[in-house]
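On clarity, I found the account of how folds are encoded harder to follow than it need be. Since the whole study asks how a given chain folds, the encoding of that fold should be made plain. For illustration, here is how one protein appears when written out as sequence plus structure tokens:

:::
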Amino acid sequence: MAQSADAKQRADSHPALSLVAQVPDFDGQPPLGWNVYEVADAPLVEPLAFEPVVVDDVSLDDWRDDVAVPWFDDPEALDRPLVADGPDGWPHSKAKGARRRTGQALPEVRVTDIEETEDSISFHVSRTGVPVLVKTSYFPNWRAEGADGPWRATPNFMVVVPTAKNVRIEYRTTTAERLGRAGTVAGVLGLGALIWWNPGRRRENEEEGTPAVP
């Protein structure tokens, strides 16, 4: 996505970018509209050349400023994603030196049959045990079947390690969210019951000798 005139001009002339949508400006204030481009040869799920490096000392709240932005601004680091967690065997580093670490080179793996819906991503790998990058936004609700993970990866993607050749990642409702929704429903029902019962109104009707009206 590009919003400045210079970025749009450069993107329009880049052979690997194709303009697919334009978002107009609505308020006359920067950003003055966006151009959205499709990047050629950029599949949703792709193999990694090296093991990701796990960053140990950064909370998820500080991930963007302390890890993602410095990584994204370093062209030499873009082929070595950093992750918030992962298997014990992956290299670990503090945030300051993580971009200079290089994990072990990974064997070749082919990713095919990639399918995406509104709440799921599925694909097939030619071999298991080799991490792959899933280029959609990480969120704790994602759950993997046929793979370990997902773990948050720079800038805000996901990495999984397939344990089966067919992998499915699905966005699910967590137990905490279910409990929260149940509590909300219970609260609304309780409020409705109090309004229906209306003890003050019932007392007034009893003092006046008239039957209470719900």
Remarks:
- DSSP finds five helices and 13 strands in the chain.
